[in-house]
Design a protein that fits this description.
This protein is of the alpha/beta class.
Amino acid sequence: MVISGTKGSGPEGTAPEGSSGIRVIVVGCGYGGIAAAIECHRKGHNVVVFEKNQEIGGLGTLIIMLNLKVVGVNPELPNVGDTLGISQNGALPIYRWDNGKVHERASHIVCNYKRHDIHTSKGEFLLSHSMKGYSDGSGYTARRGDMMRVMFDYFQKLGIELHTNAEVREYFESEDSAGIVVDGQRWAADAVICADGVHSKGRHFVLGRPDLPRSSGYAIYRAWFTPEPSLRENPATAWIPMPGDDDTVMNFIGPNVHTLIATVKRNTGITWVLTHEDEYDIEESWTQPGSLEDVLKVVEGWDPRIAEVYKITPRDQIFDHKLLYRDPLPTWTSPKGRVLLIGDAAHSLNRYERASIAQKMGIETREKWLKTDWEAVKKNPEVLAQPRPGWLFGHDPQKYAYEEFEVAAHAVLTGCHYKARNVPEADADHRTTDFDEERLVNKKHG
């Protein structure tokens, strides 16, 4: 069987608006939905986006829409956004948007982490390692609401059609098309991209059944806030670097608990997370309020610097987010291949090697920080290092997709096995720290 098709605009190019003749529906206007819509538009597809809420943004500062115009930030909602990290493999497409203008805007809001310092719960220093892969030369680590606004502004500049207050009630597909039902109206397209988060209705359609979450036994207290100027006048918090310097991240590890405390936006803000055992069986929510008293109990007897940061956190900025497991998905596409899942709607996915290995690393790292083998740490503290693998961070997914399309399409159509080239060898260590190619620095934009 021969797969024929055009080479299109290539991984870095753009096609004339609407030139492909392909119509795409995107469900969800969060990070995944906005990025998918922009990329489809750039490749010449006709795109329509549906968002169930009036506001755009999800977890983060919600952008208020009125007649599809941004009119401000919702003053009634708490400033619940912590930081979001987009590593280089995901940042490369964004870097190319609008001939680098989106990147230029993002460069003013991102954090720049040089080192990751890891300590015991008592404050004993264990190791410090490079943060290449998370710094401003190799990705975008920023407050969720800030990065959302940068991306959404470009989305609007492109004039992509958006419907808010438009909850999808039903999906359908045939051999020739797929679509959704919103407020009783059917919308059809060549493909539907479901970017509707962890509670995805699209996932239920793809699987043909609901998938219920299971408790992991852990939850995360999380916070983001702008400290008062008097912060550095207090001897207990004077250790926090001055504004303008590189951001810092510190990790404190104890039995079944660890906390990360980091500065953001060149030390003008602070974010922290505290992974703890889920004793209270909290609800599955990004905005479940957390109690400062409960937070302080978790780190009682720990390095006193930790509690001092927690104490200066505004009470309404502390949230408790339940960590849940869902059974790995057997597929991310519908039976006829016209409805597909991306982002949180596609978690977790272990059928595809690359996604499986990347997700496995997150679980492995959490286990190393919560159930630490201290004998192994004494021999080699590097076992606690956050992985920064070149095979993952250095990957260019768009370039790879163009290179592999004909081979992958042949495998899909014939049922043959497809051998991925973008994964480490079976006997290789996938938790390497060898990433060194920061491509977001001094690079020409496509």
